[in-house]
Write a structure and sequence with these properties.
Helices cover about 75% and strands about 0% of the residues. It is mainly alpha-helical.
C-alpha cells in the first residue's frame, strides 16, 4: 500500500461534481480521516450500547466496581493527552495516532479475557489512555495535514461523522442487546476492537507527517505555561458542560419533572443528533479566525440560556405544553452546540503554537475533561435538586462564561509572538 505524499488533491474530476462529491470534503486526507472515523465510531456505538452490560454480566463485576474503574480511568485518561500530544509533535502525528488505534484494539480484545477487578482496571485504564490521547493526537493530525483555513471545517465534518457513526453503531447493537446473551455481548466488544484495527489500516493512506522541530527557547511544557491559552481553554471547558445536559440532566428531568411521555425522550435525543450530523459543517462556515471564533462562542452561550429557560418551564406541565417547550429547548440547545463546537475548534487551533499543536490540543482537551468530570454532580445538583431555578442558574452561568470568551481570546491572540517557519526533524 502506497500512501500519498502530499495533502493537496489533483484537479477535481467528474465525481467531485456529483452529489456524493458535494457531500464529501474536497481534500483527500480529510476523506481518509472521515472513513477511518466512521468505521471507528460504528464500533464505538457497539461499545457504548453494551459495555455496562458486558462488564456486569460477562466479566461479572458489580456496578460499584465498574463505576470505580471508570472513574479512575477518566482521571488517568484526561491527563494522557498532553504527553501523548507532545509525543505526536516530536515523532509524527500519523504514526502516534495509528499506534493509539492499535492500543485501543488490544484493550478491546483483552476485555473478554478479564476476570476480576484488578485486571479490569488495568485494561480499562489502557483503553482510556488510548482514547483520550487519541483525541489530542487526532486534533494535532488534522492541524498538520490540513491548511490553517481548513482545520475548523475538517473538524466540523468529522464531528458530523462521529455522531452519525455512533448512532449507526448503537442502533445495530440493539439487535444483539435484544438477544441478551453472553456471546452477543462479547461479539460487540470484539467488533469494536476490529474497527480500531480497520481504522488503523485506513489511516496508512494518510501522508506521513514529519516531526516538528521546536524553537530553541521552547520548553517541553510550553502549552501548560501559556496562561492566555489556558484561560481560553478553561472557559471553553466550563462551556463544555452543555454537552452533558442532553445525556445527564435532560433524561431525568423529562421523566421525573414533566408530563411528557417517556418515549419523547428518544425523539428529543435523536433530534439533537440529527441536527449535529446535518448542520455542523454549515455552522463552521464563517469561523475563520480567533475573532470570529470568539463571537460565535459567545453567541452559543447566550443561546444556552434560552434553551435552559425553555426546558425549565416544562416542569410540572401537561404533555401538550411540555412537549413543545422541550422540543424547542432541545432545538435551540442543538444550535448552540453547533456554534460552540465550531468556535472552540478554531480557538484551539488558532491560538496554539504551530510547532506544538499536539501538546496544545492535549491542554485544550485536558481543560474540557477536568470540567466535564464535575458536570454530573453539578448538573444533578442544579437541574434536579434545585429544579427550575437551577436550570436558570445553569443558563446564566453558561452565558456569563461565554461573554468572557471574546476578550480573553483577544488577549491570547495579542500574546502570540511571530513564530519561525515550521521545520521538521527529518
Amino acid at each position: 500500500m502506497t500512501a500519498p505524499t502530499g495533502v493537496t488533491d489533483p484537479a477535481p474530476d467528474v465525481a467531485a461534481t456529483s452529489l456524493l462529491g458535494r457531500l464529501l470534503p474536497s481534500d483527500r486526507s480529510a476523506r481518509v480521516l472521515a472513513a477511518a472515523t466512521l468505521v471507528n465510531m460504528v464500533g464505538n456505538g457497539f461499545y457504548l450500547a453494551s459495555s455496562m452490560l458486558f462488564f456486569t454480566r460477562v466479566v461479572q463485576l458489580s456496578t460499584t466496581e465498574v463505576g470505580e474503574g471508570l472513574a479512575v480511568c477518566a482521571v488517568v485518561g484526561v491527563f494522557a493527552g498532553v504527553p501523548l500530544g507532545h509525543l505526536a509533535d516530536r515523532l509524527g502525528a500519523r504514526e502516534v495516532f495509528i499506534a493509539l488505534q492499535l492500543v485501543q484494539a488490544a484493550a478491546m480484545m483483552l476485555f473478554p479475557l478479564v476476570h476480576g477487578f484488578p485486571a479490569f482496571l488495568a485494561v480499562v485504564v489502557v483503553a482510556a489512555v488510548g482514547q483520550r490521547g487519541g483525541t489530542a493526537v487526532g486534533g494535532a493530525l488534522i492541524a498538520y495535514i490540513a491548511t490553517p483555513a481548513r482545520r475548523t471545517s475538517t473538524r466540523a465534518y468529522l464531528r458530523s461523522v462521529i455522531n452519525a457513526g455512533t448512532a449507526v453503531g448503537v442502533a445495530a447493537a440493539g439487535f444483539a442487546l435484544q438477544a441478551n446473551s453472553r456471546h452477543d455481548y462479547v461479539l460487540l466488544v470484539l467488533g469494536n476492537g476490529l474497527t480500531f484495527l480497520l481504522a488503523a489500516v485506513i489511516l496508512l493512506w494518510l501522508p506521513r507527517v514529519p516531526p516538528r522541530q521546536a524553537p530553541p527557547q521552547a520548553s517541553r511544557a510550553e502549552a501548560l505555561r501559556d496562561r492566555p491559552y489556558l484561560a481560553v481553554a478553561a472557559l471553553s471547558g466550563v462551556l463544555a458542560f452543555q454537552y452533558d445536559v442532553m445525556s445527564v440532566a435532560l433524561p431525568l428531568w423529562v421523566v421525573q419533572e414533566t408530563g411528557a411521555p417517556r418515549w419523547s425522550l428518544s425523539l428529543l435525543l435523536v433530534g439533537n443528533t440529527a441536527v449535529i450530523v446535518l448542520f455542523q459543517v454549515r455552522a463552521a462556515r464563517g469561523v475563520v479566525d480567533v475573532t470570529s471564533a470568539g463571537r460565535v462562542t459567545r453567541r452559543s452561550a447566550v443561546v444556552f440560556l434560552v434553551s435552559c429557560t425553555a426546558i425549565a418551564l416544562a416542569a410540572g406541565t401537561p404533555a401538550a405544553v411540555a412537549l413543545p417547550l422541550l422540543a424547542g429547548g432541545v432545538l435551540v440547545h442543538s444550535v448552540g452546540e453547533l456554534w460552540f463546537a465550531a468556535g472552540t475548534f478554531e480557538l484551539g487551533y488558532g491560538l496554539a503554537r504551530d510547532h506544538a499543536q499536539g501538546q496544545y490540543q492535549g491542554v485544550f482537551n485536558l481543560a474540557a475533561g477536568l470540567a466535564r468530570s464535575a458536570s454530573p454532580l453539578v448538573l444533578t445538583t442544579l437541574c434536579l435538586e434545585w429544579g427550575r431555578p437551577g436550570w436558570i442558574v445553569l443558563g446564566i452561568g453558561l452565558a456569563v462564561t461565554g461573554l468572557a470568551v471574546p476578550p480573553v481570546a483577544a488577549w491570547a491572540a495579542r500574546s502570540r509572538l511571530p513564530e519561525p517557519p515550521l521545520t521538521s526533524n527529518s
